[in-house]
């Protein structure tokens, strides 16, 4: 187990290094000058040159990337902004705020959005898929399958405003979506994020319903399931004791990736409901040609994905005894 974790962690660090380097290079491949955007509309050439020097943008690209990489672990001194303690992801070109601080401030919004949506996704998606597999070929199975196809066809930017208009503006059943810290008002935190949770989970729930159903049907046709039935075990015991464990492996895999993606920023949902999370931060960084903020958000999202992939691999051995980490 230890050697497996060491190999995976080293591989994850290499992936993060490659992603950050590619993002850094692609940013400068875009024909826009971040220094000019930082300097403002009226910027004489000598002022522009001074800004480029203060931002360290007059150095070779590799040197700039190396300084940024070292700053994550050891901090660094920035001419334009002063001391930047580790983990230093730089300062935003647009707002002059520390990138790491901006991500930390907005992470609770994205975390709350992801947490609630994940519960809805797992509760409705997996349970509905298991019911459809239990009643395969029957009307309940057909209704669940049809509903999942419809749900997968919907888009957040369409369903979100539509439900907000009816549930918030017209019927006034729930408050307008916003973020309330759970430590200050747990009830307000729940009610204000309920609509974004439902909207974000619609597409994912539909996908998990179809995936769970297909995996359960496949597992129920396996030899070990037929053997258990031949020994006199009831269908209910076979279904819940054996088949679901084998069916959960691909579901756990996909859920790990989806969860990491959501933690990296549910961009469309945050934009739809004006939630100031990491996704909104990424959109603003792209619009403002803000390299430090864009790199910071990219690294956070990539780190979520590789970390949760390692967790998923470890969970395999606990879900299915046929899987061993070697």
TrEMBL record:
Transmembrane segments: 9-28, 113-134, 146-167, 187-206, 242-268, 293-319
Organism of origin: Microbispora triticiradicis
Family (UniProt): Belongs to the binding-protein-dependent transport system permease family.
GO BP annotations, alphabetical order: transmembrane transport
Protein name: ABC transporter permease
GO cellular component: plasma membrane
ABC transmembrane type-1 domain boundaries: 107-316
The keyword Acetylation is assigned to this record: no
Keyword terms of this UniProt record: Cell membrane, Membrane, Transmembrane, Transmembrane helix, Transport
């Amino acid at each position: 187990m230890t050697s497996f974790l060491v190999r995976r962690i080293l591989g994850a660090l290499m992936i993060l290094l490659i992603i950050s380097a590619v993002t850094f290079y692609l940013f400068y491949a875009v024909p826009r000058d971040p220094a000019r955007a930082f300097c403002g509309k009226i910027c004489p050439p000598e002022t522009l040159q001074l800004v480029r020097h203060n931002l360290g943008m007059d150095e070779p690209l590799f040197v700039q990337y190396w300084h940024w990489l070292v700053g994550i672990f050891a901090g660094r001194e920035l001419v334009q902004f002063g001391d930047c303690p580790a983990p230093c992801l730089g300062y935003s070109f647009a707002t002059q705020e520390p990138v790491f601080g901006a991500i930390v401030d907005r992470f609770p919004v994205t975390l709350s959005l992801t947490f609630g949506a994940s519960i809805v996704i797992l509760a409705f998606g997996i349970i509905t898929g298991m019911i459809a597999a239990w009643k395969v070929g029957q009307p309940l199975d057909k209704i669940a399958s049809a509903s999942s196809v419809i749900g997968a066809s919907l888009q957040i930017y369409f369903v979100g405003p539509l439900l907000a208009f009816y549930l918030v503006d017209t019927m006034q059943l729930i408050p307008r979506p916003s973020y309330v810290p759970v430590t200050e008002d747990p009830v307000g935190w729940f009610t204000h994020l309920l609509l974004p949770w439902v909207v974000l989970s619609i597409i994912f729930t539909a996908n998990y319903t179809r995936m769970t159903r297909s995996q359960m049907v496949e597992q129920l046709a396996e030899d070990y399931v037929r053997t258990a039935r031949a020994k006199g075990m009831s269908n209910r015991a076979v279904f819940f004791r054996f088949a679901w464990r084998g069916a959960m492996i691909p579901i756990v895999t996909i859920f790990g990736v989806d969860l990491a993606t959501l933690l990296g920023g549910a961009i469309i949902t945050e934009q739809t409901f004006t939630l100031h999370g990491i996704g909104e931060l990424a959109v603003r960084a792209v619009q403002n040609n803000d390299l430090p903020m864009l790199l910071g958000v990219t690294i956070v999202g990539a780190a979520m994905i590789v970390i949760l992939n390692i967790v998923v691999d470890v969970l395999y051995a606990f879900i299915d005894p046929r899987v061993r980490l070697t």
